[in-house]
Amino acid sequence: MNWESWSAFWDMGGNAFYVWGSYGVTALLVIVELVQLRARRLSSTRKLFRLQRAAAGRKLSEVQP
Amino acid sequence: MNSTESRFNLFHYAAPQAFYPIAGKLAPLFAAIALLLTLAGLWIGFFQAPTDAVQGEVYRVIFIHVPAAWMSMFVFLVMAFWSAVGLTLNTRLSALMAQALAPTGAMFCFVALWTGALWGRPTWGAYWVWDARLTSQLLLLFLYLGYMALVAAIDDPRRRDKAGAILCLVGAVNVPIIYFSVKWWNTLHQGASVSLTKAPSMASIMLSGMLVMALAAWAYTIAVALYRVRVLILERERHTDWVRGELANIGEVH
Amino acid sequence: MNAFSAILRRDLLLAWRSRADLLISLAFFVIVGCLFPFGVGAEPNQLRAIGPGVLWVAALLSCLLSLHRLFAQDYQDGTLEQMLLSPDPTVLWILAKVIAHWLTTAVPLLLITPLMALMFDLEGGAIQVLTASLAIGTPTLSLIGAVGAALTLGLRGGGALLALLVLPLFVPILIFGAGSVDAFLSGTGASAHMLLLGGGALGALALSPIACAAALRISTE
Asked: How many CB pairs under 8 A join B and C?
């Protein structure tokens, strides 16, 4: 094991800003990408549902004017 | 006989309708692999790999910097491959694959630049140096952004696919030219004052940590691209019967 | 070959009729060049050091400014579709249009470059090298830019998008173009730069009309 204590681990030999800045921003970007992807899937399926319902409504009104 | 059969199979899976459920099955698998490999890579990187004799602890940025830089270049090559396939064989799925990969490639490109800057400050005393590798990485980011902007600006799906593919191929032809010209420019202007080519005898444990993280980046990219291509397929094929059936399935789950 | 000269003559005539547009991109080149001394200071040594790079960047931007006109008018009035349907080889008349673009935008710029170079305190030999590098390098800009112009034809935000697409691809030309003067001034000679610029121009000449033709077909479908 490299680290004598957790505080030594977080300190990264005095380079905490550079190391954790790198890992933190990377983790943040990955999370942003995943959240955005999920939001896009939800919004696009919702839109497709709406379109489908609208199309179904149109067909119904064509049958019974 | 055999060859025609395999050809047939390949084209069968190239149909968005056939690929959609496969992508749905593979994506969680790759996501799980990515998660496990990331955890293993971080474990090796932070708890197994020793402190570097020259750079101290700050070198640990390498475990994301190098995989991200590799990934950003690979992804562009893969996009160029799909673009070429899409233009020559006229398969609908290829262009969607390229479009699904682009944001992740751009993300890795930015990560490589960001971590490079943060690593550069303590090691060479500056966040940014106009080094050949950093500069061509920056230009690669511009190529990604240009591709994404062009694809986003075109409403007609057919034109979007083909125009994106042409731009991607033009970019891929230019990537090596850009790299070598920047390298030439860099050696002329800065001489040997800033040389990032340090070849420390990297401990094998460090190397294996880097490789595990690179594999994790691969698995992550594949998983995210598969998830994204599923959304793109649904949007593109929304007028077809199978998407209507698929929506009914999704509706039941919700 | 008939189609080639016909299109070339037609485009030159059209450019002559709207010569105010050409003057605007020339004036743009001059003004951008003149802004830099205000920004970085008028110290002669510094001006001499940045001069070639500044003039190259200004030439690049001025080329970009006129690129969107390359196909836009023909696209709007339907001529472009007619030309794509015509039996003449597409690559040939695209080349004619690109040459017309180069003759009308880059050549005036080449003529005024020596004057601009004097304002940056460059000497005779350096001026010659700078002008020669622009003469060899600007055709590549027109050729690569034509692909971008064809891809962004008729899109919203076309101008800014075009800049985003082609400027990264212009970087190698900028490097060798501006570098040629530095190489001349440092005594190593500019011939390597000139050869690379020429090689780039030939490569672009071979590849970009094909990509441009494909892009135009897609954009007008």
From this structure: 74
